[in-house]
Structure to design on (662 residues):
């Protein structure tokens, strides 16, 4: 368990996508976030109260959460100084980086001296097994994407919320560091040794009662040349009964690489083709559209896509999700 | 570099597949193997000279190679005693296990006391990047499979050998611990953090001159519910111009799980479908049949499959690979 409330560290965030961890926590768990801390050259902000380490501690902050990506996986020197300062002021540290916090000697030293907890969200002490592919009881929904960062986590969390409102038995299953911070539970699947991807997901979403739904946060895309292996192992381990394709209109290129986006139809076909290996009944129940970058055309896009695929097409942050829930109830 | 020659440790191997690492080294590099060491209850043997640690050292053995799988990933106590004995007798240790040798305190202690090298083949000190998906120069062939343990490594090594005989510019690229022991090089791709699968393969098979071929050892199967994520990341990172489907006739079930084998056609279609993401020119150039378990029907099977797919179908250990080489030369 990570002590709350949090100070969200944004560093010198170069754009909004760089702070998606901080933004996700602040959106889904605003009560846990006491403020943000950014450097003067930051290009992005959460719009919550800016405070330094001293002010945050005075206001009761218990954990310093690294809410920004470190470009290229390298920890900048200025981050280390701030983290050591937060430790010295008595805050625990939470990080989703690929390197353990304790691998930085200054941080390790300070945390020992101050008896502070270092939460490395990407690391699990659990020893996983390889996947078995055996059908488990209970039901599962997976969010998949035409690309990375299109809204798979938000969609899963919004569906969980709507299903709870409908008195359904449902659990959000986090598969990335931001989801873990929101759910206080889960596995960062992209940090698992690749032999155990599907096995780790089988562990994350075990046998359950027939009426229970696990809503599993998707990762990457089957069409992303960097991460498709993770997406496929996650699909096989999830053995979803239902999936939703998440998409952001107007995106020209797959994030971070020189490759075009697949069509929604290609994602549906490929997901069914691969997914039926571990669940023959897999079906697409709708499309979730992230319309934050195309607000004026949002309704037009949703109508067009819904007609084309004969499935509900909704913005999970803007719209009622009843059309999704209705289909889920029928499964 | 691992010091040679080797003593191949077989433990209490329960069947021939359990010692596939030892068998692979002994088949491809017999000159490096001075003998085998097995427990009295072992059910499998390489048919080479049986010797204990003392005899092996007296005969010049330099490295004790763990050539058998540890079931369930657990290191049996008797293995530890033998490994410590080998260390005390002056041998280095080579292991392809998922746990580091140094994580066992007795082994760590003994290796320090005796100034012995512990080779953990599944671990790389290299920090990989995520895959970029950018087309690299030079040509690449990947062996893929209908299942695990069907001959992907043997096929790749046999093709490398045949291409060398044909004076072609070729390099075998190992992606598993046995391949690494044979090639003295490579990456155990199933031990890579899953975010970096395709990136690690991009590093393993970098830009090269136009006429050069990398023959990349495949892993798992796109249809294996435990390992398909690894297979897909390997396919995307390899961006092969050519692939060969490896298959063992008469196998009823995917290895280790309750799932039927896909057809060769399904493997060809899925490999092209996924592979064209990073190489639009990907093509299947043939089928490699492991006929070790169906010798009397081998010719019949090869003829039938070759006719059905209109591609050469060969046993890479028994047959001349000229039909494969001819197609490779035309690419």
């Amino acid at each position: 368990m990570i002590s709350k409330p949090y100070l969200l560290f944004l560093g010198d965030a170069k754009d909004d996508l760089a702070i998606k961890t901080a933004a996700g926590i602040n959106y889904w768990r605003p009560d846990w976030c006491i403020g943000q801390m950014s450097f003067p050259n930051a290009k992005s902000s959460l719009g919550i109260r800016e405070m330094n380490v001293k002010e945050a501690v005075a206001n009761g902050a218990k954990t310093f959460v690294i809410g920004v990506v470190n470009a290229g996986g390298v920890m900048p020197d200025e981050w280390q100084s701030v983290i050591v300062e937060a430790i010295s002021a008595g805050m625990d540290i939470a990080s989703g980086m690929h390197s353990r916090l304790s691998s930085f000697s200054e941080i390790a030293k300070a945390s020992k001296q101050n008896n502070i907890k270092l939460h490395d969200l990407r690391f699990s002490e659990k020893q996983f097994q390889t996947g078995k592919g055996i059908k488990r009881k209970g039901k599962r929904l997976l969010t998949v994407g035409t690309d990375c960062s299109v809204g798979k986590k938000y969609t899963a969390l919004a569906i969980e919320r709507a299903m709870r409102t409908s008195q359904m038995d449902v659990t959000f299953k986090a598969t990335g560091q931001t989801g873990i911070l929101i759910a206080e539970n889960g596995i960062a699947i992209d940090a698992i040794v690749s032999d155990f991807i599907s096995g780790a997901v089988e562990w994350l979403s075990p046998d359950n009662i027939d009426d229970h739904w696990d809503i599993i946060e998707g990762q990457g895309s089957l069409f992303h040349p960097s991460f498709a292996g993770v997406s496929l192992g996650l699909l096989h381990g999830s053995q979803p009964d239902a999936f939703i394709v998440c998409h952001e209109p107007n995106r020209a290129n797959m994030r971070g690489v020189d490759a075009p986006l697949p069509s929604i139809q290609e994602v549906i076909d490929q997901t069914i083709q691969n997914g039926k290996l571990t669940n023959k009944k897999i079906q697409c129940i709708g499309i979730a559209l992230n319309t934050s970058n195309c607000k004026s055309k949002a309704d037009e896009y949703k109508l067009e896509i819904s007609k084309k695929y004969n499935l509900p097409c909704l913005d999970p942050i803007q719209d009622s999700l009843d059309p999704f829930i209705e289909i889920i109830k029928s499964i």
Q: What stands out?
A: The longest helix of chain A spans residues 152-165. The domain at 6-120 of chain A is CATH 3.40.50.720 (Rossmann fold).
